[in-house]
Amino acid sequence: MSQQLCKIFKQLGLTIFEATNGVEALEVLHKEKVDIVFTDIVMPVMDGFELCEEIRKSNHFFNLPIVVLSTHCDTNYIVKALRQGADDYIPKPAKAPIVKKVLTRVLKKVDLGISS
C-alpha cells in the first residue's frame, strides 16, 4: 500500500492491516477484526478479483465491504471488479477527498444493511 494511502487512512482514524497478496489478505481476515477491505487488482499469488470472489463465497465475510484501488481505469476492469463482489472502485493515484467519499458511501450501505 502506498504511503499516501496509509496517510489518508491514518488521518481517518483507521487501523491498517497490510497484505502483499490475496492469500495473505484472507489470513488477515481470519485473524483480525476488519471492517472494510481495500485491495489492488494486480497482486501475486491471488489477485484482487480472486480475493473479492473468495470473500463473497465465505460464510463469515460475504457482507464485508470491498473497495478496489487500481491504476487500471479501463471499464472492463471496473465492471469485472464489481461483478466479482467489489462495492466500489477508486482509480489510482487515490486522492483523499475521493477515498473519504467512497469510504463514507460504502460504510453507509453497511449501516443500512444493503449488500453488494
DSSP summary: helix tally: 5
**So what's the overall shape?**
globular
- Cα radius of gyration in angstroms: 13 Å
Element string (H = helix, E = strand):
HHEHEHEH
Structure class = mainly alpha
What is the residue-mean pLDDT, rounded to a whole number? 87
How many structural domains does the protein architecture include?
1
Q: What gap, in angstroms, lies between the N and C termini?
A: 24 Å
Briefly note the CATH topology name: Rossmann fold
Uncertain segments are: none
Helix amount: 40-55%
Q: Could you characterize the architecture of this molecule?
A:
The chain is mainly alpha-helical. It has a three-stranded parallel sheet with strand order 1-2-3, sandwiched between helices. The chain has a single domain, classed as Response regulator (Rossmann fold, 3-Layer(aba) Sandwich), CATH 3.40.50.2300. Helix 2 packs parallel to helix 3. The longest helix has 17 residues. Keywords: Phosphoprotein, Two-component regulatory system. One of its GO terms (biological process) is phosphorelay signal transduction system. This is Response regulatory domain-containing protein. InterPro entries: Bact_response_regulator, CheY-like_superfamily, Sig_transdc_resp-reg_receiver. Pfam families: Response_reg.
